[in-house]
Design brief:
The complex is a heterodimer of chains A (about 425) and B (about 200).
Chain A (H helix, E strand, L loop, with lengths): L3 H16 L4 H17 L7 H8 L7 H15 L2 H12 L6 H16 L2 H17 L5 H12 L9 H10 L3 H29 L13 H6 L5 H15 L5 H18 L5 H35 L1 H12 L3 H16 L4 H18 L4 H17 L5 H10 L4 H24 L2 H10 L2
Helix pairs in contact in A: 1-2, 2-14, 3-14, 4-13, 4-14, 5-6, 6-7, 6-8, 6-10, 7-8, 7-19, 8-19, 8-20, 9-17, 9-18, 10-18, 10-20, 10-21, 12-13, 14-17, 15-17, 16-18, 16-20, 17-18, 18-20, 19-20
Chain B lengths: L5 H36 L8 H22 L15 H36 L12 H31 L1 H8 L4 H8 L15
Helix pairs in contact in B: 1-2, 1-4, 2-4, 3-4, 3-5, 4-5
Classes of the chains: A mainly alpha (about 425), B mainly alpha (about 200).
């Protein structure tokens, strides 16, 4: 049996090599290569090719390029400005005004685009000019955009859940159902944060907006149709049993093309640019994932689970304590890592521990995606924060950091809710998949 | 692209062509899936083997996309720590990353080639209703990976050469994308969709 010592060396060696700036895929491959070479005299090196080929046979993974493609098409054909102003009509009467629109628009955009960098850059570009005139607290303007952009993966179609499902043999449909309530609560907590701040410090929100007549608001709903229709098509076709997750992704690509055609934006140029971006992002994700499958395989034949379970048993902590330990571990790791490396680098090792401790795999999927979101938002390294600062081109990055802190607190509160009330995630999937 | 890498500029058209072909395949597959769902609902039978073809398509998109991502410096690196080192050390690590990545790509295509060779030798077919001769999808997959490994090798040689000649240029061309570069890459078409296409503004 492999020792805990060896596992720890491997794990921290992996993190160290990543810090040296080697590609994440190279590091994961090197680690698997070393494990196989040391423990099996290299006899299993030759299965690498068939492992990588076989990994792709999991048909659910095809949802990854399809989701990316649908996002690329929608993002290119819709007008973010119109989406933003249409959403503002609904949300700006709440205390905190346009700040709610930042959260809402960023969440919607990141749910379809799948990229928090692209979300933060786009929404910041669209939103910042309208705030300059209105005298809002600048820090909260920046923080609310970052907060919304970090929500993307919790809202279907999120690629993080597809990656998690394929690494752990769990069901994407169940994961999406499980994420529904926590995603909604997280959004409400963000909005509540804004309301509370606006009531406590009336100065943070600027001029109040004029009320827009209901009819006008309803008319402008068409500007939000892209994200809403896609969400309904995906969730609807999965939960009525009409389509599998992959099929629903294919269906939503067709819907996205239809929306682009209705907007008179469907051109060969748009498609080719979308294809190029799709292949890029798919390859970046799949290359790391394919190597992670090989690492998973290597760890599987090394039989690390008994070692890890014994180690966790020796800690003598309850599942709740274990989850808090993991939450702190992920928050620390999240300071330096992006979503994908964080997930594929840790799930092969952490997942067996969690399952051995009797924690529900579906619940853990929601937990780890929430941890990934937190890593995007938490200063001082959250990627989205620097993107927003780069778009802003003035002031100090410290203002962005300060602005995100109330939302980081809301996310930590969400983590606590999820840990202490696991039913928030598990109730819906248990109703839908008895 | 932010810093003009002559190598990347010359190789990009080939990579882009591969990704466009893959994109059209994805669209055709989506249309067929739509038809399949409709036929199933109307009890008209089903198109055999879409699942299987989908799996092959994913390998194609990944293999050809890898080249495009490489030329755009898209493959993920954790740049938080090492980019704060002095430029000399950063240059060595950037060259090391390019060279190890090329070795990894070379091993991957070598292994893929072995899988392909075995399928050809044994005349393997998929154990599915389609009974696809496996050399066809595996051949396309290997070709995509070969392009990827070739580009990775060329970039590694270039990076190694620059390490000896011009370290500042090495860091500019083979370091992680700057924030502005990354924003440009990820928002192509979303912020400037009317006047700009792929490749930046």
């Amino acid at each position: 049996m492999i020792s805990m010592y060896a596992i720890a060396i491997g794990f921290f060696g992996m993190i160290g090599l990543m810090f040296l700036g080697l590609h994440v895929a190279t590091v994961l491959f090197g680690l698997s290569f070393a494990a196989v070479a040391i423990y099996f005299d290299g006899r299993l090196l030759d299965v690498y090719g068939s492992q990588v080929w076989g990994a792709m046979e999991d048909s659910v993974l095809l949802a990854i390029p399809l989701y990316i493609l649908l996002g690329e098409i929608l993002v290119r054909c819709g007008s973010t400005e119109r989406m933003y102003s249409s959403l503002a009509m609904w949300l700006n009467r709440l205390p905190g005004g346009l700040l709610h629109t930042n959260v809402g628009a960023s969440a919607m955009f990141s749910a379809i685009s799948g990229s928090s960098v692209s979300t933060a850059a786009t929404i910041a570009t669209v939103a910042l000019p309208s705030f300059r005139r209105r005298r809002y607290d600048e820090r909260l303007v920046l923080g609310s955009i970052a907060a919304g952009a970090s929500l993307g993966n919790l809202i279907p179609p999120g690629i993080a859940f597809v990656v998690y499902a394929s690494l752990t043999n769990t069901s994407v449909g169940q994961l999406y159902a499980a994420a529904m309530a926590p995603g909604a609560i997280m959004t409400l907590l963000f909005m509540a944060t804004i309301v509370i701040l606006a009531l406590l410090y009336p100065g943070v929100a600027g001029e109040r907006e004029a009320r827009v007549p209901l009819l006008e608001r309803l008319k402008r709903l068409s500007d939000l149709s892209g994200p809403i229709v896609v969400f309904v098509v995906i969730m609807g076709s999965i939960y009525t049993g009409w389509a599998t997750v992959t099929e629903s992704a294919a269906l939503s690509v067709l819907v996205a093309m239809a929306i682009a055609a209705l907007n008179r934006k469907l051109t060969i140029r748009l498609l080719h640019d979308s294809f190029f971006a799709t292949a890029n992002l798919t390859a970046i994700t799949m290359l790391i994932l394919a190597v992670a499958f090989y690492l998973n395989f290597a760890l599987g034949i090394l039989n690390i689970t008994p070692t890890l379970s014994a180690f966790v048993g020796s800690l003598g902590s309850s599942p709740t304590e274990l989850m808090w330990i993991l939450a702190i571990f992920y928050i620390l790791l999240g300071i330096f890592f992006e979503t994908l490396p964080m997930m594929v680098g840790t799930v092969p090792v952490i997942f067996p521990i969690v399952v051995a401790a009797g924690i529900d795999p579906i619940w853990f999927g929601v937990f780890i995606v929430l941890m990934c979101e937190l890593s995007l938002l938490s200063p001082p390294v959250g990627m989205t924060l620097y993107v927003i600062q780069a778009v802003r081109r003035e002031g100090a990055i410290g203002q962005v950091f300060a602005g995100t802190l109330p939302f980081v607190a809301a996310m930590v509160a969400m983590t606590a809710l999820l840990i202490h009330f696991p039913g928030l995630a598990l109730w819906l999937p248990r109703q839908m998949f008895p | 692209m932010e810093d003009d890498n002559p190598l990347a500029r010359r190789l990009m058209p080939a990579a882009r062509l591969g990704t466009i072909a893959c994109g059209w395949v994805l669209v055709v597959l989506s249309v067929l899936t739509g038809i399949e769902i409709l036929m199933r609902k109307l009890h008209l039978g089903s198109i055999q083997g879409l699942d299987e073809i989908g799996g092959y398509v994913l390998t194609f998109v990944t293999a050809f996309g890898c080249s495009a991502a490489l030329l755009q410096r898209g493959h993920t690196r954790v740049d938080f720590a090492f980019s704060k080192l002095p430029p000399g050390a950063t240059a060595i690590l950037n060259a090391a990353a390019a060279i190890t990545f090329a070795l990894f790509a070379a091993f991957t295509v070598w292994e893929a080639g072995k899988v392909l060779a075995e399928s050809i030798e044994l005349r393997s077919r998929a154990t599915t209703p389609l009974q696809t001769p496996l050399w066809i999808p595996q051949g396309i997959w290997t070709a995509g990976l070969l392009l990827f490994a070739g580009i990775a090798a060329a970039m590694a040689l270039h990076a190694g050469w620059l390490l000896l000649r011009d370290r500042a240029r090495l860091n500019a061309l083979y370091g992680p994308l700057s924030l502005e570069g990354q924003i440009d890459m990820e928002t192509q078409g979303t912020l400037h969709h009317d006047e700009a296409g792929a490749g930046g503004r």
